[in-house]
Amino acid sequence: MTRRLRFRGESRHKVDGKGRVSIPASFRRVLEAGDPDWTEGLCPNFVIVYGDHRRNFLECFTIDEMERVEDKIARMPRASQKRKLLERLYSTQSVTTSVDDTGRIVLPAKLREKIGIQGEAYFASNLDTFQIWEPGTFEAEELSKMEEELDDLPDGFDPAMFLDAEEV
After folding, report:
1. pTM attached to this predicted model
2. Residue 21 buriedness (CB in 10 A; 0-12 / 13-18 / 19+)
3. What is the pLDDT of residues 135-168, one digit of tens each?
4. CB-CB neighbours of 58 under 10 Å
5. What is the pLDDT of residues 16-42, one digit of tens each?
6. How far apart are alpha carbons 128 and 30 in whole angstroms?
7. Could you tell me which of 108, 96, 4, 104 has the C-alpha nearest to residue 45?
8. SS3 sequence, the chain?
9. Closest by alpha carbon to 132, among 150, 114, 159?
């Protein structure tokens, strides 16, 4: 079985006036492994999905992972509304970019404005993807949501028990 690298961790990074921001080093290794055209000395490509008006973060996919998503969409009936919606959300509302040789990317002004990034960006892993957030938005929305979900669990409940639940 081929070992598949995953994104892990979280970090905050400065964003300069031109929108340049460093990608966490461990994330760069996953991007390299997930770009079939990458070889030593080249810069890995990946896809940033910015999505619709409701999305307040950027979702970043390796080339391989985005192709898996696109393959699922391509198997849907061509004229279906679901396919059209998913094509717009994942294909139209996305941009392919690359990590430069210093480990940075340029976040276009349109994307920075969409999610409110100014001086810092927050990177959060999600196994097969990672997200880029405005740090205050992440803390206010995602962390508080997770805390509420944990508070709703019975006393003494270990969330690791979810790992043993039957697959859906």
Report:
1. 0.89
2. buried
3. 999 988 877 787 778 878 888 888 877 787 765 4
4. 23
5. 999 999 999 999 999 999 999 999 989
6. 9
7. 96
8. CCCCCCECCEEEEEECCCCEEECCHHHHHHHHHCCCCCCCCCCCEEEEECCCCCCCCEEEEEHHHHHHHHHHHHCCCCCCHHHHHHHHHHHHCEEEEECCCCCEEECCHHHHHHHCCCCEEEEEEEECEEEEECHHHHHHHHHHHHHHHHHCCCCCCCHHHHHHCCCC
9. 114
> Which tokens hold the place of 135?
């740090």
Distance separating alpha carbons of residues 130 and 18, to the nearest angstrom: 22
CA angle at 46 for the pair 123 and 129, rounded to the nearest 5°: 45
Token duo for residue 103? 């480990």
Residue type, 134: E
**How far apart are the C-alpha atoms of 148 and 136, rounded to whole Å?**
17
**Distance of CA 124 to CAs 5, 151, 166, Å?**
16, 22, 27
Length of the chain measured in residues = 168
